[in-house]
Amino acid sequence: MNKIQEIIKNIHLLVPEGKRVKIMNVCGSHEHTIAYAGIRSLIPENLELIPGPGCPVCICPESDIVNAIILSKKEDVILVTYGDMLRVPTQNGSIRTEGKNYRMVTSPFECLDIARAHPEKKIVFFSIGFETTTAPTAALLEMGVPDNLFILSSHRLTPTIMEVLVKDTEVGIDGFIAPGHVSAIVGSNAWNVFSEKYGIPTVVAGFEPENLLLGILEVLRQLMYKEARTSNVYKSVVKPQGNKQAQKIIEKYFKVAHANWRGIGYIPYSGLELRDEYSVRDAKKVFMLREVKEKNTAGCICAQIILGKSYPSDCTLFRKACNPKNPRGPCMVSFEGACNIWYKTNAAFTSFS
Amino acid sequence: MSKIEIGHGSGGSLTKDLIENIFLKYLNSEELKPLDDASYINLKREKTAITTDSYVVRPLFFPGGNIGKLSVCGTVNDLLVSGSVPEYLSLGFIIEEGFPLDSLETILKSINDTAENAGVRVVTGDTKVVEKNKCDGIYINTTGLGELVIPLFLMDVSDGDIVIITGTVGDHGTAVALARDELHIDTLVKSDCASLHELLIPLFDIEGLKWMRDPTRGGVATALAELSEKTGLGVEVFEEKVPVREDVRFISDMLGYDPLYIANEGKALIITSPEAADRIIDNLKKHPLGRDASVIGRVTSNFNRVRLKTRIGGERVLDLLEEELLPRIC
How does strand A47-51 pair with strand A21-25? Predict the structure, then answer.
């Protein structure tokens, strides 16, 4: 028996019969691994692996995207952002369909070249994501940026939204698989609150199927022995304290603020805005952007899916009106979005019985 | 004369100049030369295979090929996987006003080289010019005729048959996606665009060869899903047996594509009886284009649809996707 088979065998042994066990992942790449490797077909039916708020594109508030579209229409502005953000639908279309001057980048550092090549334009970097993408944006600011470069910050904090989910009894999470990439920045200690305060086993795992299965097994082991600890099976990458230097520069340029999550609403202390000292770089202030009232697409249950209350296959639009070419909600856009992953891997149909 | 003008499509003297000075410079079969309304051809066998295809790939030039090479290979491969030896080709060009003539020459040279190599003769053609912005550079339509050697029917596929792929999957789609300006990734990935005549014609003699397909748009997964749908049989695919280049896997992971759904332009999917599988694999591996040939699955009547057995032993369904993920890939 190889190692993976052994882990799977032990998972079967540790899942109590007749009881549902819910383990949530909060990273799109984890859901990606689960779906593509067919992990759900290998585990007991009563063990639920729930995709949570792990896709930064999915939770980016509609208001910020609408403002990005408005900015891209200004003659003297070039809006710059990550590829997936261009296709996220809003009440006013997407950046790609409605925007005018926009560029896609794969790294914030590309903004420097664009800013230098267009000194006559104002370059606005629409910077979104969790701790993983906040760090490079902070590093960009730390390097020193040209006067014509501005940041539209839509950064969010993973631990805060997880705490919201824990308090929501409707979801009833038994354990967390903590995100590997985010943990590399914030450190595995950042999740101690879940094991210590809420008694929920939390395990940091990587992205290879074997490592992820090992993480699931560790959650089950803790549940079996009624333990609640923060464990780390991704030690090669994640340290208890995380990346101190990254934390330092994030702290230097960003402050924690109340933030809007798409479909979910305002959550206290869940986002990051530029500190007041850097107001001259803050696109929200420089361009005096106003909050746009969010409109939900009829039938779209992305918010429920992000909160782990529904699966993509529960949505009446899924695979019908909503597909990757014509996404109706944000979770169908990015390959970190649960709907997109489930669409491409037929995750809803993996039960062959 | 450095760009295509509207007059080049008028049928008048500019058209004549274009045909005689540019097209005939590269395409000069005996059948084509008279430039009459139709060409005369000889067919050796009782039965002939015919196929048509249009090419709108964007960009027109990509690592490993261009729209010209692609249009010949694509058509030739359609004939080959249908059990026929490609003989004749027609070419219809729709060109946008302002298209650079040197690009056209590069495309035509490529067409000639590829056709000569594949043993097909371009025997008839047509050129139309449309106004600027009414098409995207150049589109090519082809018709291919081939002498039918061995008719292959999907209904001959049965329980227990073996599924073979002649090489790595996903190269073409990945190369073309990367050649679009939006992504700034430097890689060595090239389109696999190639004529498969030397690889596939020797297989026609092997008893037990059941059915073939060139898995272009939608990739191997779509070709198998269609097979399953039409036959009512199931297909089991073993992920670890499917050859994927390391860089293609890396890039597709990054872009969120599944190599099994990415287009190929120089591969054949082969269904064979279990008895013939070894001989077919041996034959394929003799040729550089079949070096990575691999048995990737088997046909079964135990279930329907296509099931992928993942590396770790998990299962997921490979279905038809409603939407093409990478439009204008060929």
Answer: parallel
pLDDT of residue B22: 93
pLDDT of residue B115: 98
Tell me the CATH number of domain B6-148, given options 3.90.550.10, 3.30.1330.10, 2.40.440.10, 3.40.50.970: 3.30.1330.10
Show which of residues 25-54 on chain A sit within 8 Å of chain B, judged by CB atoms.
Answer: 32, 35-42
How far B232 CA sits from the closest chain A CA (Å)?
A: 16
Chain centroid offset of residue B47 CA: 23
What six digits make up the tokens of A160?
């805060």
CATH number for the B154-318 domain, one of 3.30.43.10, 3.40.50.150, 3.90.650.10, 3.30.565.10?
A: 3.90.650.10
CB contact under 8 A, A325 and B315: no
pLDDT of residue A350: 46
Interchain contact, B316 vs A340, CB within 8 Å: no
Residue ranges of chain B whose pLDDT lies below 70: 1, 181-184, 322-325
Q: What is the Cα–Cα distance from A63 to A80, expressed in whole angstroms? A: 17
Mean of per-residue pLDDT scores for chain B: 94
Q: Does domain A3-54+159-232 have CATH number 3.90.650.10?
A: no
Per-residue model confidence as pLDDT tens digits over A237-291? 999 999 999 999 999 999 999 999 998 899 999 999 999 999 999 999 999 999 9
Q: CB-CB: which of A5, A319, A349 is closest to B317?
A: A349
Q: Which chain A residue is nearest to residue B256, measuring alpha carbons?
A: A335
Q: Quick check: A323 contacting B, CB < 8 Å?
A: yes
Q: How far apart are CA B118 and CA B125, in angstroms?
A: 18
Q: What is the CATH number of domain A57-155+242-286?
A: 3.40.50.11740
Cα–Cα distance between B88 and A113 in angstroms, integer? Answer: 51
For residue B100, the number of C-alpha atoms closer than 13 Å in the C-beta half-sphere is 5
Closest chain B C-alpha to A242 CA, distance in angstroms: 24
Total beta-carbon pairs less than 8 A apart between chain A and chain B: 75
Residue range(s) of every CATH 3.40.50.11750 domain in chain A: 3-54+159-232
B201 touches chain A (CB under 8 A): no
Q: Nearest chain A Cα to B303, which residue?
A: A352
- CA atoms of A133 and A147, how far apart (whole Å): 22
**Domain(s) of CATH 3.40.50.11740: residues in chain A:** 57-155+242-286
Q: Which pair of structure tokens corresponds to residue B63?
A: 């690592």
